[in-house]
Design a protein that fits this description.
Oligomer: single chain
Distance between the termini: 18 Å
Largest sheet: 6 strands, mixed
Order of helices and strands: HEEEHEEE
CATH topology: STM4215-like
Number of domains: 1
CATH architecture: 2-Layer Sandwich
CATH class: Alpha Beta
Structural class: alpha+beta
Amino acid sequence: MELERKKDISIVYWLMDVFSDVSNITILDEYSNKELEVPSLALQTGQITAEDFQLGDRTQKLIRLWHIDIYAKSTEQRNEIAYRLLREVDDGIPVYDYDEGFPPDYDPTKIGTIGVFSKEYTPIAVVPELLEKIYWRGAVTIFTDYSEV
């Protein structure tokens, strides 16, 4: 499995841990094709940029953009989810070797950490006249780099 896919999966499991005390929240890897259960979080992988890391050699650091879309029942619920995400990303997100297996049956080895160097929260306006079903939406966007263990 590619390292980038291990990062994707690690963020999904990290979200499950962060919101483990919320009994009815759904965590999705990408958008759902079926009716959303609210509240839900959908991880969207974004742009990957290679930037020169060290002057004089060809070492590059991959900078990655992630969107965590929030679907909630109310403004308050949306904001509370976003505020928790903004607080929790400060400690970084562990990355595990999922070639070894997946939780909860297996406890894979930690191979690195996704470090967050920039984050933002954007509430998304809902226009009731244009939607059949209304969700209160928002997006937390994080800009990250990766460090091996």
